Amino acid sequence: MESLQTTSIPSDQEPSVKHCKRGGWTTFSFIIGAVMGLTLAAGAWLSNLIVFLVNVMNIKSINASQINNIIFGSCSLFPIAGAVIADSFFSSFYVVSVFASVSLLGMIMLTLASTIHSLRPPTCLQYAVLYSALALASIGLGGTRFTIASFGADQFPKPDEQGTFFGWYFFTLYLASTISLTAIIYIQDSVSWGLGFGLGVAANAIGLAVFLLGKGFYCHTKPKGSPFVSIARVLAAAFRKRGKLERFQSQGYFHGDNIEATSGPTESFRFLNCAALRFEDDRKSDGSYSSSWWLCTVEEVEDLKILFKIMPLWSSGILLSTTIAMINSLTVLQALTMDRHLGPHFKIPAGSFLVFSILAIALSIFVIDRFLLPLWKKLTRRSLKPLQQIGIGHVINMFAIVGSASVEKRRLHVVRNLYLDGEPPDSVVSLSGLWLAVPMLIIGVGEGFHFPGQVALYYQEFPKSLKSTSAAMISLLIGIGYYLSIAITDMVRRSTGWLPNDINDGRLDYVFWLLTVIAFLNFVYFLLCANLFRYRNTDNHENEPNNPPSLSHGQASWSTIQNHSRPYPSQNLTSGALTPLQRTGIGHVINIFDVVASALIESKRLHVVSTLTSVAANKSCLIQVRCAWLVRHYPLKGLGKGSTFLDMLLCFTKTLQSRSLTRPCSKTALRKKRMESLQTTSIPSDQEPSMKHCKRGGWTTFSFIIGAVMGLTLAAGAWTSNLIVFLVNVMNIKSINASQINNIILGSYSLFPIAGAVIADSFFSSFYVVSVFASVSLLGMIMLTLASTIHSLRPPTCVTGSFSCEAPSKLQYAVLYSALALASFGLGGTRFTIASFGADQFAKPDEQGTFFSWYFFTLYLASAISLTAIIYVQDSVSWGLGFGLGVAANAIGLVVFLLGKRFYCHTKPKGSPFVSIARVLAAAFRKRGKLESFQSQDYFYRDNTKAISGPTKSFRFLNCAALRFEDDRKSDGSYSSSWWLCTVEEVEDLKTLFKIMPLWSSGILLSTTIAMINSLTVLQALTMDRHLGPHFKIPAGSFLLFCILATILSIFIIDRFLLPVWKNLTRRSLKPLQQIGIGHVINIFAMVGSASVETRRLRVVRNHHLNGEPPGSVVPMSGLWLVVPLLIIGVGEGFHFPGQVALYYQEFPKSLKSTSTAMISLLIGIGYYLSTAITDLVRRSTGWLPNNINDGRLDYVFWLLTVIAFVNFGYFLFCANLFSYRNIDNYENEASG
């Protein structure tokens, strides 16, 4: 076969580095030197992290294992971010440089933490330093890990040179890892942690310096933009054209430059085909078509379908990575309790046992590539496919898990024989740690199959635009696996006694057997997905056997690429050839066996502990089990990892070029027969949105804005939803006072949107207002997180049932109120401003309506998540973690919003919307007493146009403001709107405000009653039985979720069922005032329901003699009774809330459209403040609301609210009778005409 080097490649298909005069082997030493230094630095702190946390930072063993998994997960997730940043925004050189500097900073902090006594226990400052150091080091490592590999490959234009580079890259990677796992860990354990980390700092600094020295020699590629844009465009185009008829002729689809295409899109995921369907309104002014957000090529549609098809296979690797992550961390814990001596003087560091897995990977890479693959090919005349590699990896890993379980069973047997149960956690079992090597070796073998097989599969089958990201998908898989391992470990700890702090007292072998079951079920899931999957690129190559070698790089093997062998033709797991997916499956199996091996080793160790009769109660007490046991499962892990990891990346590089060669490169666009254009609604020019001539905006901005809404709303829910519980249980504030503070805060952030809307419309654009207020909200959330975690910023914990609780100090109050004020101010400034800013991005009313629907859907979805998941974390795990999740959500939302800046349509501030109102009042006051004219031509109209009728007869004293007099004329004889002369339209706008204000005010008491019920319901829930089953307890703040769910469901039912039925019966639409009236009535029934439930609760209190008991006493009555009135409130809000928004938006003047939607927020804010005043009045005048509601009469308060709601409903009916629509009636008259 011809040499690969002689294969001709079309000029337009060659790699981008072809025309770069730099790069090549000159850069090799710089990049490999940087890889060596950075990998050594990473191994210096990653490899021995558990031992450092346990022995130096005094963190309990299982907690240290959890932290280790979090760090490993983060290091594996961050490469995705690094790859996207490098491809989309900055070049790889700058990404590697910055992240390497961040990693260096983290290493320096770790070194300081290990050497400075004040940064180590027993003081309490160290957690902040430790976690900051780990976070910086993780981010830095993740940002460089895969980015520097792709940057190195970019320096070489030829595929064989890229293959050679990848070979040396992974050789250097594993060599540096081996050095870290042996020499550096030995120094840390035997000499000094400071020296060990210091060597890592030196290695990091040298690697960064070497990398920077080569800057003048590198070939720098320009960022190509986000690789996810084409995916988003397909989804946006398919959504826009949903419901369109699908064509069956390929000529009806857009193929881009592929003029020779003869077939349309495939039948799978047919709803996406519309994205490539050409319509008349997709045609440009010159009659041609081009790929855009409304029209995509068939190739782009098929690329997205491939992603949908391959994702199930990708997901099968998550649990595989999870089992490996758990075995790695648990093996180190086992090693700490076993005899790790090799001879009388040398002791293997516990963290070094992972080197057996690394060595097995390195060895398996060589053996599989040089012996097994050629042998397989000679026997079957076919190459090993990715699916076959993955399948083998699955099987081998199952054996590894069985091995781990067997070793642990033996360890536990020794533990019991030596009676080590109940001894100090560091008691050593007299069982050799080398037993652990067996499952680790098996894991290595499994990873040698499935890990390269997966990368080969993703690189070959992913779309071209995602080639750089496809390799990092493995890193994402590993990261998710580490995080899931944390969840499984935590679940096992909570549900069983298998994982105590001292594993000698637990049943770690049961954990390994559990992992075996998980691995087996995951293997079955993989087989199902693999059987349903069909290759795309591999099959294309197989169908072209006579193509030159450059078109046939479907193999995941170095040897087959060097020998220029032909690709494999089989299509699924059961065919004769081994595919990348099958090799990955093999890795899965190896991993399962590795976990089993770990379980067996731990069983043996515990057995030794149980056989010991007496052991001195000190940390140096060793269990007589040799650490050689630990080594026995590491080869499985190493062999699994090393199988074809190198070959997979080679295959990725080759396949990318081969795929590009198979695509025709004609630049002649296909023409199609004209179609009838879709009927669109014409919009009068004076009513079109202001962004009519804006070239930005549109659905491109949708994901940015909705992502920001999701993040900011999650952040808001993280502190508003559970605020009362936080104030009562953490800050020791009395219950009624906490309810009052809650109402003030909710009222504040409901009032602030008015300020945000006015600022956005009058002085600054909405973009800057949202950005600044979101930053303020983030600052407030950070202060709340600190207040909940730092002991000096909160009072001592009050024991439940105690009468004497220490109140917060002045400093603590100052921090608390400052945090709440900043968070409220920031939330209020973004809440409605971002909604109007999002609507400004769309020119058509129907698109604006769609945006608002998704906006409110996202709003309620985020609120539901906050009211369940985040509140559960706060109540059951940690307040600091709950608020920390809010900080993260706020930061992510802000970043997502800022990332879309260049896509937004930015509208200029139009001046204060209240200026015209002030001008009308000023002009009417100036012309008071003037005779009113009955001739329409005597009045001033907008743009000096003629009108049939003058101003209306209502509020006639304002008409003089539009009456023209001689002294209103300018020097040129014309009239213009000013502070002395207004238009009739401006006068009528002010009259409309005067007419609608009484109706608006009727909503204040409605909001007041709802606000009081919401806050008082939380206080009721705190005193009731909130258990669902024996283990789960509903957080008190989560009861408000039922109201939100009822609102969401009722809005859907009203919109899709009740309104159409009403229109069919009456032939008229339900008007906003009717919807509001129905909401009033339903909410009165909700008040009655709340009063009835509270009456029953107080009866139970008295029957059980709970009067006079401490405030935390729980009434034996299910909290689910509270659900009924909350559901009724939600249904009522489903009527009156949308009705009020529609009324104000339709009837308010055009100049106040932005402010009209915020009027609802103002209504709610005043309602919360008024609820505070009513609560305070009731407390001062009666004894109904003591600090312990069990001693009060909360039912009387609810009956009082019922009376208030009924009187307010009468006031609403009176105002509604006097009100007459302006815009709605005009619209109905036009429609009937």
TrEMBL record:
A molecular function GO annotation: transmembrane transporter activity
Subcellular localization(s) per the UniProt record: Membrane
Superkingdom of source: Eukaryota
Matching SUPFAM superfamilies: MFS general substrate transporter (SSF103473)
InterPro entries reported for this sequence: MFS_trans_sf (IPR036259), POT_fam (IPR000109)
Ranges annotated as spanning the membrane: 28-54, 66-86, 93-116, 128-153, 165-187, 193-214, 313-336, 348-368, 427-449, 470-490, 510-533, 699-720, 740-760, 767-791, 811-830, 851-873, 879-900, 999-1022, 1034-1054, 1075-1093, 1113-1137, 1158-1178, 1198-1219
CDD domains: MFS_NPF1_2 (cd17416)
Membrane topology annotation: Multi-pass membrane protein
Keyword S-adenosyl-L-methionine: no
Biased composition, class Polar residues, residue ranges: 549-561
Any single Gene Ontology cellular-component annotation: membrane
Keyword annotations of the record: Membrane, Transmembrane, Transmembrane helix
Pfam family, any one: PTR2
Principal location: membrane
Residue numbers spanned by region Disordered: 542-561
Homology family: Belongs to the major facilitator superfamily. Proton-dependent oligopeptide transporter (POT/PTR) (TC 2.A.17) family.
Protein name (record): Uncharacterized protein
Organism: Salix dunnii
